[in-house]
Write a structure and sequence with these properties.
Deoxyuridine 5'-Triphosphate Nucleotidohydrolase, Chain A, three-stranded antiparallel β-sheet, 34% strand, binds deoxyuridine-5'-triphosphate, binds magnesium ion, dUTPase-like, Deoxyuridine 5'-triphosphate nucleotidohydrolase, dUTPase, dUTPase_trimeric
Length: 152
């Protein structure tokens, strides 16, 4: 069973068409709220191009939470569309428009339209670390082994 928090959302594109859905869960138990592109005109993403795409909303997350902006797998597999900074981080104290940094990793141009669901947003609890400086760290079997040291 999922737990919920209430989050304030502000529509930023009301004086345009007012037709864009706010971020929403497409099925009852999914993790991410799908986010629509608040484009005024079609946007052609050439192969390799990066574009910051507006979403038409701002939000106020409660302190102690963050939102992660993650790619949609369908767009990635079918069209090569990724998010250059995935997962993007929306801080609890950010009040500006949420924007999505898309990249076309495919070989073909991709045209995005107003209202296309371009990303998904997952709300997460945040732990902040208190930095405790020490002279040595506790031993482990792994020690400093990493980057494939256990083999393929
Ligand atoms: O995909 C993203 C990532 C970030 N942001 C906004 C919300 C976030 O709170 C703010 C700062 O993001 P981040 O900390 O990742 O960027 P920065 O380069 O460290 O900027 P800053 O110095 O403003 O923290 O930008 C977005 O709208 N979309
Ligand atoms: Mg930052």
């Amino acid at each position: 069973m999922h737990t919920t928090i209430t989050v304030d959302f502000l529509r930023l594109d009301v004086d345009k068409n007012g037709d864009l859905p706010l971020p929403r869960y497409m099925t009852e138990s999914c993790s991410g709220m799908d986010i629509c592109a608040a484009l005024e005109a079609d946007l052609e993403l050439l192969p390799g191009a990066i574009r910051l795409v507006p979403t038409g909303f701002a939000m106020a997350l409660p302190d102690g939470f963050e939102a992660q902006i993650r790619p949609r797998s369908g767009l990635a597999v079918k069209h090569g569309i990724g998010i250059i900074n995935a997962p993007g981080t929306i801080d609890a104290d950010y009040r500006g428009e949420v924007k999505i940094a898309l990249i076309n990793l495919g070989a073909e141009p991709v045209t995005l339209k107003r209202g296309d669901r371009i990303a998904q947003m997952v709300i997460q609890k945040v732990w902040q670390a208190r930095v405790n400086v020490v002279e040595r760290l506790g031993d482990t079997d792994r020690s400093a082994g990493g980057f494939g040291h256990t083999g393929r």
